[in-house]
């Protein structure tokens, strides 16, 4: 195979690797936004919580002779608990009394609370995590693709399809869609709004735990602020894909990952060294602005008029 | 709306609030002191310290405070400085320039403070340097290596500077490892990373090395470097100079370099000290870094004593930052003693400038800019542990 081609395909997979993690995180943002129109800024920090649970439980699980990834089970349980507590203790009272701005500020407060809380409990320093998966990499001649990358992409797709089916066909899923369309009408139709919202948060937070597993598999380190930039990029991914849309989150995440990787690899060559790979973040956010100017609802978003 | 913006906004608000309250504090203490004798003439000498005890560089700050405490307790056991007990006034700047400026202002408002130890990282030291000149209070940075922080006035340091580390790394690559093709990867957002990389490239070209690739990341704390590393691998480089911090080079850059098939040498600056390793330690073979201090340095008799007393005090082995900060305290002590019985802050500066010093991190003379010219130690990772490789003497 041509070495330039190998390079290009490798760069695509580099992009898919980080992009699939963004997708998993973006799914969490989109779920919550789709139902209660709240941008849960603490979502990135749920991932941090999940990662710390993995760090704490993985050694014990390895000692019991089980594969390290089983640690995702306690991580899911804790994340769901944290998500539901945050919803019940902070978001729900604020949502009932305030407006969408107060809810947004509460989300930012929760994010800072979780970050600083983790720093108080675990200290500020970075901690490494044992290897979670030992999947051999796949080789096609000169091309190496890491097993983790393939697993993350597959897992992302499975979760996306699963969620889409769940939301479309189950009773609970239909309730979620009903709440997202019209809260008052769904109360009249006998939908329990509070339990539906709690369920949404539980699913979103559980997804955060899965995302943290895939994240630490690729980047084996945890720190209290690890969720901040990750959450921000995933939020951008969710907006780019069309926030509220489940396939949109997936597409948005992969797109951001690919843009990042390809700009890092080729922008220097294309612009003859004027713009370097250091600009990749600027380019990612620049593209977001362009997409939003052209299609404000995002790639997969529905254009809906404001209800009067 | 974006979290980062909001987080920053909150920080700025908090910082402004703090600055206002601090201004109130220092104003108050100044007027109190103006009537009475300066506390420096009392029975204690206060050394202020500003370190980063939380955030990315937290491990550095913690190690520095341990070094300060050890040196000060030794000095006090031996009778203090000029017969006066030494007290440490320790402050955390969280790695934030605003916080470190506030901390410095607070310390300079206290007349009993004769010298400030710190700050920890270059970014915070750069913020403190002009304040040190303004308030005529000496600051000795133990490990801030950026070239740009030099004021040539009230700011000194115990460590060598970045350009010097980059040069040494290039010389080590050319003379000791005898490689021909080298590549660089650095973070443009961080002067430490970009400054070291620049001086490495300059020296490498002078030594006739072929710089085959030059890649950068937008910040020095990215997590994904595979794209850049893939290009470095494709460029045929045998040696990669990647000046990043321990928390980035350890879990991200080195494993990612190995996973794209780069099996050459990876070298870094002293930011690799305390490198965070993943459980596959074989990835870290052929990793070197320049540093200020090595416990295996048998030529320096002070090293063994330092390690012994550090162990008995802290139940752990000292790292570079502890060694440098330990020397920093003794530099301050030497200067205060030389300055006389009840020295002013200006006299301390005069005594420190151009002085010669023997410490655990080597013997050196401070040059005009306040930075020492000293030998550099190269460590090599073997089975996940840094091992003494060689000492590169100043040119």
Structure description:
The complex is a heterodimer of chains A (308) and B (395). Chain A is mainly alpha-helical and 308 residues long. Chain A has a single domain, classed as ABC transporter involved in vitamin B12 uptake, BtuC. Helices cover 73% and strands 3% of the residues of chain A. Chain A has eleven helices and four strands, in the order H-H-H-H-E-E-E-H-H-H-H-E-H-H-H. Chain A has a two-stranded antiparallel sheet with strand order 1-4. In chain B, 44% of the residues lie in helices and 21% in strands. Chain B has 395 residues and is α/β, with parallel strands linked by helices. In chain B, helix 1 packs parallel to helix 3, helix 5 packs across helix 6 and helix 10 packs across helix 11. Chain B is elongated, with a radius of gyration of 21 Å. Chain B has two domains: 221 residues, 3-Layer(aba) Sandwich (Rossmann fold); 129 residues, Rossmann fold (3-Layer(aba) Sandwich).
SS-based class of chain A: mainly alpha
Poorly predicted runs of chain B are 1-40
Oligomerization status of the protein chains: heterodimer
The fold-level CATH name of chain A is ABC transporter involved in vitamin B12 uptake, BtuC
Tally of alpha and pi helices of chain A? 11
Helix content of chain A: over 70%
| Envelope shape of chain B | elongated
Order of SSEs of chain A, N→C? HHHHEEEHHHHEHHH
Number of strands of chain A: 4
Q: Which chain pair has the greatest contact?
A: A-B, 49 and 41 residues
- Ends apart, CA distance between termini of chain A: 59 Å
How many domains of chain B?
2
Main sheet record of chain B: 7 strands, mixed
What average pLDDT do the residues of chain B reach? Answer: 86
CATH class of the largest domain in chain B: Alpha Beta
Principal-axis shape of chain A equals globular
Report the CATH architecture of the largest domain in chain B: 3-Layer(aba) Sandwich
Main pleated sheet of chain A: 2 strands, antiparallel
The number of helical elements of chain B comes to: 11
């Amino acid at each position: 195979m041509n070495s330039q081609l190998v390079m290009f395909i490798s760069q695509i997979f580099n992009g898919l690797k980080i992009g699939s993690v963004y997708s998993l995180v973006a799914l969490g943002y989109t779920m919550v936004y789709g139902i209660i129109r709240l941008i849960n800024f603490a979502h990135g920090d749920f991932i941090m919580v999940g990662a710390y649970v993995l760090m704490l439980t993985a050694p014990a699980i390895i000692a019991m002779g089980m594969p390290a990834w089983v640690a995702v089970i306690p991580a899911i349980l804790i994340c769901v608990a944290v998500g539901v507590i945050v919803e019940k203790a902070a978001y729900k009272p604020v949502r009932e009394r305030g407006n969408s701005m107060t809810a947004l500020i509460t989300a930012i407060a929760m994010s800072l609370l979780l970050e600083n809380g983790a720093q108080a409990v675990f200290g500020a320093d970075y901690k490494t995590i044992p290897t979670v998966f030992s999947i051999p990499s796949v080789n096609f001649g000169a091309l190496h693709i890491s097993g983790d990358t393939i697993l993350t992409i597959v897992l992302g797709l499975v979760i996306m399809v699963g969620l889409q089916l769940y939301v479309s066909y189950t009773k609970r899923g239909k309730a979620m869609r009903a709440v997202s369309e019209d809260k008052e009408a769904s109360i009249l139709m006998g939908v329990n709004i509070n339990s539906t919202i709690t369920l949404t948060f539980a699913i979103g937070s559980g997804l955060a735990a899965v995302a943290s597993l895939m994240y630490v598999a690729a980047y084996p380190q945890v720190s209290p602020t690890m969720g901040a930039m990750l959450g921000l990029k995933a939020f951008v991914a969710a907006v780019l894909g069309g926030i509220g849309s489940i396939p949109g989150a997936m597409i948005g995440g992969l797109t951001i990952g690919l843009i990042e990787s390809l700009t890092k690899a080729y922008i220097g060559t294309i612009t003859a060294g004027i713009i370097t790979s250091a600009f990749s973040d600027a380019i990612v956010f620049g593209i977001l602005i362009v997409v939003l100017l052209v299609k404000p609802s995002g790639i997969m978003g529905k254009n809906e008029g404001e209800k009067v | 709306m974006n979290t980062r913006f909001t987080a920053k906004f909150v920080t700025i608000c908090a910082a402004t609030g703090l600055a206002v309250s601090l201004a109130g504090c220092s104003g108050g203490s100044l007027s109190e002191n103006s009537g009475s004798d300066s506390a420096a003439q009392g029975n204690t000498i206060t050394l202020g310290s500003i370190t980063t005890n939380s955030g990315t560089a937290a491990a550095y700050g913690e190690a520095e405070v341990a070094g300060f405490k050890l040196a000060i307790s030794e000095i006090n056991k031996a009778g203090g400085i000029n017969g006066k007990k030494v007290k440490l006034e320790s402050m955390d700047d969280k790695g934030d320039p605003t916080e470190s400026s506030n901390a410095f202002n607070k310390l300079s408002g206290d007349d009993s403070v004769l010298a400030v130890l710190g700050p920890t990282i270059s970014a915070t030291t750069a913020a403190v340097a002009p304040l040190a000149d303004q308030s005529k209070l000496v600051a000795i940075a133990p490990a801030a290596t950026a070239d740009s922080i030099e004021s040539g006035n009230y700011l000194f340091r115990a460590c060598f500077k970045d350009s010097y580390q980059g040069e040494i790394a290039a010389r080590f690559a050319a003379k000791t490892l005898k490689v021909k093709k080298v590549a660089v990867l650095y973070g443009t957002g961080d002067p430490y990373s970009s400054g070291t990389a620049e001086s490495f490239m300059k020296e490498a070209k002078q030594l006739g090395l072929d710089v085959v690739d030059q890649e950068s990341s937008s910040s020095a704390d990215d997590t994904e470097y595979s794209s850049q590393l893939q290009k470095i691998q494709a460029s045929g480089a045998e040696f990669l100079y990647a000046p990043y911090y321990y928390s980035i080079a350890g879990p991200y850059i080195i494993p990612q370099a190995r996973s794209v098939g780069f099996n050459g040498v990876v070298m870094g600056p002293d930011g690799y000290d305390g490198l965070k390793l993943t459980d596959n330690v074989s990835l870290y073979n052929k990793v070197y870094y320049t540093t200020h201090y090595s416990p295996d340095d048998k030529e320096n008799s002070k090293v063994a004593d330092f390690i012994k007393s550090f162990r008995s005090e802290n139940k752990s082995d000292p790292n570079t930052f502890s060694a440098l900060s330990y020397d920093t305290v003794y530099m301050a002590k030497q200067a205060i003693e030389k300055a006389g019985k009840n020295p002013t802050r200006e006299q301390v500066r005069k005594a420190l400038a151009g002085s010669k010093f023997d410490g655990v991190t080597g013997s050196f003379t401070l040059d005009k800019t306040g930075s020492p010219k000293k030998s550099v130690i190269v460590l090599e990772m073997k089975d996940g542990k840094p091992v003494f490789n060689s000492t590169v003497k100043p040119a």
